[in-house]
Design brief:
Layout lengths: L1 H18 L3 H9 L7 H7 L9 E2 L19 H7 E3 L8 E3 L8 E2 L6 H4 L9 H7 L7 H14 L7 E5 L2 H12 L4 E4 L2 E2 L8 E4 L4 E2 L6 E6 L7 E5 L3 E10 L4 E9 L7 H6 L9 E4 L5 E5 L2
Antiparallel strand pairs: 1-4, 2-14, 3-8, 5-11, 6-15, 7-13, 8-12, 9-12, 10-11, 10-15, 12-13, 13-14
Amino acid sequence: MLRFFLVLLLVVAAVQADNDVSPLEDYWRSVLPNATMPRAIHDLIYPGHRNNRVTIQECVVFYYVSSNISSQHLTPGYLQSKIFFMKDLYPGAQLKGVHLINRTIIGNFFVPRTEADAITFTSKNLPKILEHFSMTSDSKAVKLMEDTLNSCEVPPLKGEKKFCSTSLESLIDGVSSLLGTRDIQAISTIINEPQDEKMVYNVVAPIKKVSEQEKLVLCHPQPSPQAMHYCHTSSLYKVYIVPLVGNNGSMVNAIAVCHHDIKNFKPFILEALNIKSYNEPICHFLSGDQLVWFLNQ
């Protein structure tokens, strides 16, 4: 009899666990059965406390080549703390002043596609977006929303393809379209504890190239009341998984993006970094909520 009740409890617990699984996670499993869900996706499906207050921790790196960015947004000090040369990325190297964070944007989350598609996310439709999310027209959030929509509408760079998604379903569809298959994987930087801005990191082995294929898609979260991503692909950068150990013993599995063609970078960026030649690749780490997608090997 006791064994019967134990079995019954296990069955009830299993049913309860299944009931706790989000339909969005079920969707991921159904369309990407061979892909492990990265933390950057999981945290937008299960965000904990939900509200419409979105906090911007940091601007995202793809703005380095955006047409509407200026030296007012990216100061020399900020750039020098984020970008390093590829020649300095080797086991045993020390990286100083690199501040790694889990989330560039806090407070938003994925909504079902039917809900996301109920409103068109374009700059022309901004008044309706503000009304839908009860945003006042003079708030700072509105300017961020404008920047989000404008960045999605700016034409892609030469040799680049891009899209913006407003749901998990449209994110997977867009990435699958760019990569030509749903046999794909996604990864993100793994940070297990808050990192100090003055942290010194030691690069440890092994540094792994993410994919030998040329096809990669990078996705950056955008300021929006609901989860929104700006995704782009290009053959002009390489991506690496770089294990880091901080001087306090903390460990980070960081994703580094190295740009091999920097001719499109703004002149003030190259000047701030004292770059004299276009031939030297430069790199930056992705925060924990940015994604790299690639073909299954």
